[in-house]
Design a protein that fits this description.
Layout lengths: L1 H9 L7 E4 L2 E8 L7 E2 L10 E2 L3 E8 L10 E9 L5 E8 L5 H10 L6 E4 L6 H11 L10 E4 L1 H8 L8 H9 L12 H9 L5 H26 L3
Parallel strand pairs: 5-8, 8-9
Antiparallel strand pairs: 1-2, 2-7, 3-4, 5-6, 6-7
Length: 232
């Protein structure tokens, strides 16, 4: 019976999206999220000039671990931006094989422009350096160097450290946006979800990681707009 249960579990291999390269799936959704002004006030980040909302690219990675370094790889990249009509576009790249990473990196690079401003939560210390390492190991040009980067963790800490229990994104989204996640897969379980899938396991938790990543992107945008609305 145990063997039958394992086979039934591994029969669920459905990964959302379109396979745009061998082992690489793209999901895309356009939603109403936030009401950005044409120019975003960035004094909260101690920048002198506002930034057009169309230049912002919110991004977040899911990886094989939190240690970083050459042994850690990104297996999912989520990115979101506001379109000209004010709608919010969510795009996610998910690899289902080890060999799909290079195609994922190439695709993500195509979403970046010379004037793109990245928006992240702790991305300056984690996501961006990790991706730069992966681009280097794949012998691809690094498209992140030279781009502006709004890391929201730092202004959130300046405003609310010591006021909240911590300054994690989950806390910021709850306190500032009223977001309470249900059936959320903790980010710490994302590596196991992907590795289990690679070994033939169920795609259920992989889909839960996609949902978690999508909410992270929406929360990034919401926290950004909240910070931009604070009195100078």
């Amino acid at each position: 019976m145990q063997g039958m249960a394992r086979r039934a579990l591994s029969s669920d291999r459905m990964v959302p999206g379109i396979e745009i390269a061998p082992g690489l799936f793209l999901t895309e959704a356009i939603v109403d999220w936030g009401c950005p002004t044409p120019l975003i006030d960035t004094t909260f980040a101690r920048w002198d000039e506002p930034v057009a909302h169309s230049r912002l690219l919110h991004f977040d990675t899911e990886t094989t671990g939190l240690a970083g370094g050459t042994g850690t790889r990104a297996w999912m990249i989520g990115a979101a931006d506001w379109l000209a009509d004010g709608h919010f576009r969510l795009r996610q790249l998910t690899t289902t094989t080890m060999g799909a990473e290079t195609a994922m990196l190439r695709t993500f690079a195509q979403w970046l422009q010379p004037d793109t401003v990245l928006v992240s939560y702790n991305g300056k210390c984690y996501d961006s350096p990790l991706l730069k390492t992966r681009f280097r190991l794949a012998r691809l040009p690094d498209p992140l160097s030279g781009l502006g980067h709004l890391d929201l963790l730092h202004p959130v800490r300046r405003h609310w450290k010591g006021v909240w229990e911590n300054c994690r994104l989950a806390t910021a989204e709850r306190e500032l946006l009223g977001v309470v996640r249900e059936d959320d897969l903790p980010g710490s379980e994302a590596p196991a979800a992907w590795l289990s899938y690679l070994r033939g396991g169920s795609a259920l938790n992989l889909r839960r990681v996609l949902a978690h990543n999508s909410q992270d992107l929406k929360s990034l945008a919401g926290v950004l707009l909240h910070l931009a609305s604070l009195p100078r």
